[in-house]
């Protein structure tokens, strides 16, 4: 069995309610190792809510299961889920505007540190310094990969929106995730910026084998880069398949592909 045949993330019968409002109804899907899976749907479909359930920001209703590499995520704290190798890029930019691009990427390395508090005190002159050098090398590799060398020392608050989104993406990559959750990574970008981001996402998938779950409204981008698409409508899954299968699904065509509204 190849890695791509293995199930990395398995979601089964997930329900989510806020008071009397049911946001998700019995959602289930599988994401295979190394694939890019897209979740699509119109405003209020429950796409971001589903991502929030995966990484622990929302607690789903009793019942159901969210398993990552066979381990149940439900009930785990957000930082514990992150420590399993699950990173998140949010719909809104989460960078620190008063810090440089380089320093923002370094904040993504905190989960990659191999030394604890005691060892850092005992071996600060050797072990901790080696870890710092290793982390800086990894961050420099990401800077080269994302082609942001000219802005490495610039404060993020001074950058254009598209570059800030790129730095935010880089900070998630600095965590070296096995599973990357991307919530509208191209929202607000112009055509050139979207093309660049799509290229980076594909390169991460192909070169590093990172499994990704992507929420995105640009259907052209989704059809170009996704291996697998799940379609939600008012919190209900109405389609699940390849881009070709979804594009030819009459229910999806009627409900989504003709819409261009933002989430």
Mind telling me the CATH superfamily name of the largest domain? P-loop containing nucleotide triphosphate hydrolases
Number of helices: 10
* Main β-sheet, spatial strand arrangement: 6-7-8-3-9-10
Shape: globular
Average pLDDT confidence is 87
Please give the CATH architecture of the largest domain: 3-Layer(aba) Sandwich
Question: Total domains, how many?
Answer: 2
Q: Structural class, please? A: alpha/beta
What CATH first level of the largest domain would be assigned?
A: Alpha Beta
Estimate the helix proportion, in percent. 25-40%
How is the biggest beta sheet arranged?
A: 6 strands, mixed
CATH names the topology of the largest domain as Rossmann fold
Multimeric state of these chains? single chain
Question: Would you write up a description of this structure?
Answer:
This protein is α/β, with parallel strands linked by helices and about 260 residues long. About 40% of the residues lie in helices and about 25% in strands. The strands form 2 sheets. A 6-stranded mixed sheet has the order 6-7-8-3-9-10, with helices on both faces. The chain has a 4-stranded antiparallel sheet with strand order 2-1-4-5, covered by helices on one side. Strand 7, helix 7 and strand 8 form a beta-alpha-beta unit. Helix 3 runs parallel beside helix 6. The longest helix has 22 residues. It starts with 6 loop residues before the first strand and ends in a 6-residue tail after the last helix. The C terminus is likely disordered.
């Amino acid at each position: 069995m190849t890695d791509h045949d293995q199930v990395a993330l398995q979601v089964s019968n997930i329900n989510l309610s806020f008071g009397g409002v049911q946001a998700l109804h019995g959602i289930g899907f599988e994401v295979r190792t190394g694939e890019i899976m897209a979740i699509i749907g119109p405003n209020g479909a429950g796409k971001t809510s589903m991502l929030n359930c995966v990484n622990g920001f929302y607690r789903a209703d009793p019942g159901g299961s969210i398993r990552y590499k066979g381990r149940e995520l439900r009930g785990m704290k957000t930082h514990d889920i992150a420590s399993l190798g699950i990173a998140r890029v949010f719909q809104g930019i989460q960078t620190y505007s008063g810090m440089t691009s380089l320093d923002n990427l370094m904040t993504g390395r905190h989960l990659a540190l191999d030394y604890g508090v005691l060892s850092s005190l005992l071996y600060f002159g050797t072990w901790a310094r080696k870890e710092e050098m290793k982390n800086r090398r990894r961050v420099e590799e990401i800077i080269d990969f994302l082609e942001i060398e000219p802005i490495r020392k610039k404060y993020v608050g001074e950058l254009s929106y598209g570059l800030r989104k790129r730095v935010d993406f880089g900070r998630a990559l600095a965590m070296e995730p096995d599973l990357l959750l991307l919530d509208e990574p191209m929202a607000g970008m112009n055509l050139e910026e979207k093309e660049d981001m799509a290229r980076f996402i594909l390169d991460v998938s192909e070169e590093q084998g990172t499994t990704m779950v992507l929420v995105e409204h640009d259907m052209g981008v989704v059809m170009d880069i996704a291996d697998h698409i799940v379609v939600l409508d008012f919190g209900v899954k109405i389609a699940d398949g390849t881009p070709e299968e979804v594009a030819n699904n009459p229910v999806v065509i009627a409900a989504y592909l003709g819409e261009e509204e933002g989430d």
